[in-house]
DNA sequence: GTGAAAGCGCTAACAG
DNA sequence: CTGTTAGCGCTTTCAC
């Protein structure tokens, strides 16, 4: 097992190179201000010694350390790791490193994580936070902060266009001949859930769809299975679900009943995560630009750190689109006869 | 948008509390060494001012900043985010924060990420690294480092028991009546791939299975589809795939041919990630204790940081188990007639 | 117990 | 262009 030794400092390099420490510093932080030959020499010596500048010591003077925190409720949720990847690559590109906090859906853990990471980063990305608007604003006073997937007054945010996406889904269903749709709701505290439901109400009215709502449900396979009964009771021929996992759970639950997808009922999800593609039949879903969401968030935050004065704090809205797969189709011809409503599921 | 102000320092607190800065410092870092009433007073004043100690300034003196880096090839791969979550929660529990680097399967990016993060963390977790053993050891000289999913001489590591897992899979297949199995290989550079293949060779011999190997293939859906032809040509009745995604890709590819799973061929995956459960039929797979892998890695690393002198650098081996689902079954009775080998797939 | 002073590794401001 | 001198915010001797 390799023995770890104390890394060389700027002074070691300075001595070895026969120059002043400040010159070494300059050679690394603003190469332009140093004779090209000395700079070269210093670099060589440094490399030789295995010198790496200590970013936090630097941060002490510059009060920036090129660290960004991203706080997510659940790393294992496909929804978030696409966002994380977008954020990570944008951060790396801008020379920032990401600090990751998984709050495991707990508001308490989220608060703790934030308190621990806030003092050490230059800015924070909050993805689908469970905090109150007031709590968010409090933290935003301490460090530049940006909210993903939720609009908060006076706080920069990036959201997806739930309205447009839902509208497309409604049009799609109406176009197939559906007359009714039920929204299968997700977590009560979710901003996205509220936003999607409201959007569906509007869109349904515009395209002439009768709309119901069941829930709330956990955004999990189990939650989807639990939604079966309520959905069937709503007697709609189509379901728009809070997210993909919930939709898949619903589809699975329906399979245990006499109801088949898409012949009896059509199911639409939200987010276009990997599962939508894996499930059989493929899940028609509203695609959120997850990676772009993370990337845009980081870019805006970094711009702010660099002094960009964006007067407005209107949310940045990213477009959504409908991805049509096998889970939607025309409803049964004799529509008067609603689908069987007795759930025989486990 | 909230205005961000410069956070209060230890001096601000000292002045407001009417004590010396060093006393404030002590009140936070070693409360025992301070009069309990003064300490209380200081805490109150600090809270009042919204003081948070700057971890990196502290780190300058103590040369520890409670940061750990985790480097993964692909955040969006379910395999890794289970590991990440395990690592994250173990880190949080030990008072450490995780810094995340996604190298997007690129050795170059991995090197860059490491160079950027190494100087700022106390230790590094390398998950399924693409580096050479020599490269790993070089970095291990600079900071305590631990490798996940790969055994490297002279370097602490945590791996899963591929041997045992593969053995179980082989026994399962043999028990069902299979006489032949083909290993569908993953990336060439992968330590896990080599390890699994070797394990299968041994296990197959022991249980009396004829064994072949096809590949390498990308560990993706596409890679799995591309493996179809080679697999069919191998004329085996069972496939053991490098990982779940590859297995799912293979199953999908097979569906486009005349071959059905599990009636014509059985398919076994590796890792027991979410997709194994979602796919139809469910994928029988060797389950790796992913979360435990991440957690154990962090715990070992932290122990080392705290001065634990573990003499040996033998890999820590975590148990694997076989999870049986619908993708495996008894081979067709008339086994002389091998499955159709003409691939009609896209 | 508490204060004063030095220093962690680096950058910044000021001379030359 | 380069050297000198102060700090950045905190911890750590060493006195008292």
What can you see in these coordinates?
The structure is a homodimer of 346-residue chains. Chain A is of the alpha/beta class and 346 residues long. Chain A contains 13 helices and 12 strands. Chain A has helices at 10-17, 21-29, 36-49, 55-62, 78-93, 107-117, 133-142, 162-176, 191-207, 221-233, 244-255, 274-278, 290-305, and strands at 67-72, 97-102, 123-127, 145-148, 157-160, 180-184, 210-214, 238-241, 266-271, 284-287, 316-318, 321-323. In chain A, the strands form 2 sheets. Chain A has a 6-stranded parallel sheet with strand order 2-1-3-4-5-11, sandwiched between helices. In chain A, strand 1, helix 5 and strand 2 (97-102) form a beta-alpha-beta unit. In chain A, helix 5 packs parallel to helix 13 (290-305) and helix 8 crosses helix 9. The longest helix of chain A is centred in the middle third of the chain and has 17 residues, at 191-207. Chain A starts with 9 loop residues before the first helix and ends in a 23-residue tail after the last strand. Residues 334-346 of chain A have low confidence and may be disordered. Chains A and B meet through helix 4, helix 5, strand 2, helix 6 and helix 7 of A and helix 4, helix 5, strand 2, helix 6 and helix 12 of B. Chain B binds a DNA duplex (16 and 16 nucleotides) through helix 2 and helix 4.
């Amino acid at each position: 097992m390799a023995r770890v030794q104390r890394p060389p400092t700027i002074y070691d390099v300075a001595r070895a190179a026969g120059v002043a420490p400040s010159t070494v510093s300059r050679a690394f932080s603003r190469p332009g201000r140093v004779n090209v030959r000395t700079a070269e020499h210093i670099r060589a010596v440094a490399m030789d010694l295995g010198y790496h500048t200590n970013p936090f010591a630097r941060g002490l003077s510059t009060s920036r350390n090129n660290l960004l925190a991203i706080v997510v409720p659940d790393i294992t949720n496909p929804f978030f790791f696409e966002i994380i990847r977008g954020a990570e690559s944008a951060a790396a590109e801008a020379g920032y490193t990401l600090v990751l906090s998984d709050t495991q859906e707990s508001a308490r853990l989220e608060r703790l994580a934030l308190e621990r990471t806030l003092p050490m980063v230059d800015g924070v990305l909050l993805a689908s936070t469970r905090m109150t608007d007031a709590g968010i604003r409090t933290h935003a006073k301490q460090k530049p902060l940006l909210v993903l997937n939720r609009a908060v007054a006076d706080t920069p945010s990036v959201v997806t266009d739930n309205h447009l996406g839902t509208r497309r889904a409604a049009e799609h269903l109406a176009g197939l001949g559906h007359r009714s749709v039920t929204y299968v709701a997700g977590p009560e505290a979710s901003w996205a859930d509220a936003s999607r439901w409201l959007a569906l109400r509007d869109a349904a009215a515009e395209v002439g769809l009768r709309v119901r709502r069941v829930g709330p449900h956990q955004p999990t396979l189990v939650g989807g299975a639990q939604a079966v009964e309520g959905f069937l009771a709503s007697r709609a021929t189509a379901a728009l679900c809070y997210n993909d996992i919930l939709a898949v759970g619903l589809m699975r639950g329906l399979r245990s009943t006499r109801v088949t997808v898409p012949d009896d009922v059509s199911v639409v999800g939200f987010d276009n995560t990997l599962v939508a593609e894996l499930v059989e039949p493929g899940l028609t879903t509203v695609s959120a630009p997850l990676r772009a969401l993370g990337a845009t968030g980081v870019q805006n935050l970094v711009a702010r750190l660099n002094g960009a004065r964006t007067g407005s704090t209107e949310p940045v809205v990213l477009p959504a689109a409908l991805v049509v797969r096998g889970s939607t189709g025309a409803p049964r011809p004799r529509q008067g006869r609603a689908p069987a409503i007795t759930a025989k599921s486990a």
